[in-house]
Amino acid sequence: RPSASPTKGRAVIERANPADAPAILAVETATFSDPEGRFNARQIRGLIANPRAAVAVARHEIGTVGWCVSLTRSHARWRSGRVYSIAVMHEFAGRGIGRALLQWSLTELGARGVGRVYLEVREYNAPAIALYRDVGFETVERLASYYAPGIDGLRMLRIADARTNATTATKPRS
């Protein structure tokens, strides 16, 4: 009987702790080829320690295969959140791990009373944009050369329903 593939099985989403920093750095290194576009070890440790940040990892039987971070910001009359980063190892793409990490972030932000959730995404990242739209984000702004010269981004927004604190699309979907 053939042995099971090391990439089979489900990932579990858990809150990150300081001991996860090296594994998160490994995910960053594997998923972002440009060193300028990824977090370094000091930044990751700082995010894990930041009380305004919610950091989670996707654990699989082979180790950490993804991570996410979201931030909370307080305003005079409401709180907003930002999904700051979601990264999943390429060999685990398309298995729902990014969606699970995003849902974890949205749940965490909702528990913190966040009313508006923003994120930025590379304009050419069609799979991520489709995921974000599927969970209620809408494009609110095109960001010319946001990531680097010639690499545009999109700013997306999801607004919470005040009655349920559940985040919904900014306008009804048809």
Give the helix/strand layout.
Layout: E1 12-15, H1 21-31, H2 41-49, E2 53-60, E3 63-74, E4 79-88, H3 97-111, E5 114-122, H4 126-134, E6 138-148, E7 151-161, E8 166-168
Parallel strand pairs: 4-5
Antiparallel strand pairs: 1-2, 2-3, 3-4, 5-7, 6-7, 7-8
Helix pairs in contact: 1-2
Cα gyration radius (Å): 16 Å
Helix proportion range:
25-40%
General shape: globular
Low-confidence stretches: 1-6, 162-174
Strand count? 8
Terminal CA distance:
50 Å
Strand content: 35-45%
Considering the chains and any ligands shown, give keywords for the structure:
8 strands; globular; 8-stranded mixed β-sheet; single chain; disordered N terminus; 174 residues; alpha+beta
Can you describe this structure?
- The longest helix is centred in the middle third of the chain and has 15 residues.
- The protein is built from 4 helices and 8 strands.
- The chain has 174 residues and is of the alpha+beta class.
- The N terminus and C terminus are likely disordered.
Overview in brief:
This protein is an alpha+beta fold. The protein contains 4 helices and 8 strands; from the N terminus they run βααβββαβαβββ.
